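> tool_call: predict_assembly(chains=four)
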Amino acid sequence: MVAERRTVGRVAPGGDTRGMSEATDRPPIAEHVITFRVRYPETDPVGVVHHSRFLQYFEMGRIELLRSLGHSYADLERQGVFFVVTRAEVRYRAPARFDDVLTLTTRLVRATHVRYDHSYELRRDGTLLAEGQTTIACVDRAGQLIAIPESLGMTAP
Amino acid sequence: MVAERRTVGRVAPGGDTRGMSEATDRPPIAEHVITFRVRYPETDPVGVVHHSRFLQYFEMGRIELLRSLGHSYADLERQGVFFVVTRAEVRYRAPARFDDVLTLTTRLVRATHVRYDHSYELRRDGTLLAEGQTTIACVDRAGQLIAIPESLGMTAP
Amino acid sequence: MVAERRTVGRVAPGGDTRGMSEATDRPPIAEHVITFRVRYPETDPVGVVHHSRFLQYFEMGRIELLRSLGHSYADLERQGVFFVVTRAEVRYRAPARFDDVLTLTTRLVRATHVRYDHSYELRRDGTLLAEGQTTIACVDRAGQLIAIPESLGMTAP
Amino acid sequence: MVAERRTVGRVAPGGDTRGMSEATDRPPIAEHVITFRVRYPETDPVGVVHHSRFLQYFEMGRIELLRSLGHSYADLERQGVFFVVTRAEVRYRAPARFDDVLTLTTRLVRATHVRYDHSYELRRDGTLLAEGQTTIACVDRAGQLIAIPESLGMTAP
């Protein structure tokens, strides 16, 4: 499923990426591209992917971005480290349909000690279908905010 | 969501629960009816409820049958008692569509010390849309088979 | 599923709909409250409702708000009138869990000739679990923007 | 996603594949193997793939089996040819978990002029997680039974 790892690097200090357009104007801390095919039950009576599914695609993008950096989210959860989504925003540009092959670019655009901001671009061939942004926070099993493990190598300086 | 509780306890002989196998030829141990409306993302590009959703409806039926008998499945899980589906069968008779109001009859048709068999009939008005049968087994948090708690009051004699 | 219809029509000034943007600083054009129970497969391995589900709850809220005003979204689609989500934003405040009874307040906060903005507040008892905002646009079967039917009675003057 | 095409051929006349074990005792008409990774929202609060998801995996198996034979189910639907599930059965042997890489073997075990029977085996490494069987029927846009197009090359003699 994972197609390509484009960029991995540390962002310059002082980055604060507010806003959907601003966020994508900065060099990402890490970037990853996955390609996948739309499944039948992901589409709705109008024949297009239900808008709620895009958040599931974005989550796949985050998980595979993490894997591309050598980390398994499944392992993190087994170690008691969880990421919960605290904010999500999606702008829908064009519909995706059953059996479409989609390309999702996931970018880590901001990292603090406890939160990551990601941005997303979902395309079919060259066409932009959706853009999104999420903030995820690192919590323990009880849901309490904890520091992102240093082993992930992607925290604020 | 729960509309009506029809029968609880052993029904008189002659119950008309004809179904897919001998299990449903007997009077049910317990029976419950729920009514609910089909949600938009439960339907697929053909405009009908995706066939996988029926197993989710059946699960709702089991949970509400249990609640009608005074038990909360959420509480059971908190106590370390889980039910896992070991077998499921569905026969699809007619399509269900978005916004349809459906009526699901759930019957507990067989109880052993560790397993329950349920049967299901899903209808829209008088029309039978689907019939199903499942077997669920009682397990602990580790997935090991355990005896169904006597407190549920529905185990083999 | 629909529990209560609180307000229909233009509410008096001073309505307390503080939210995520200026859109919700105005009195809502219409408002509706639904109550529903979290289903088992809506929750994820951490035991909380998956963040993508909230967009499905919001859609239920919109559909029931419309119904409370005397309109059926299923009928609209049969007539060739569709609403597509063009933007969605969610802020997650606290987790929802299996079997929780949730209350969703849906407010129509802005109407133009072709678009509706809604805002949402999801609560369990008094606790705010999530807030959201969406923009939906009116399109025909081919996905082309069309005027919202006047029969809906909720368009810009 | 598609891993391997194992066998394609026509079944001997007189094949009637009743029963889950019998069905898999015969040489399949066609067989295909796909490999995929379990997604996060496919798992439930117990941390295992929800039992309803297996029917979605089986559908993916059918669609990819068809593709391996040179046919696109998306194209078929655009031409007005639909397949609806009329019966499904699953036996669950062991749980699948988030991030597991699963292998699904899909076999076309019986073909009539209007129906296909498929059988399925879902495995993680060598371990059998589930077996299933479905019957699908060929219908037109109105849901009326029609003959399976000869172009598919897999109908009864």
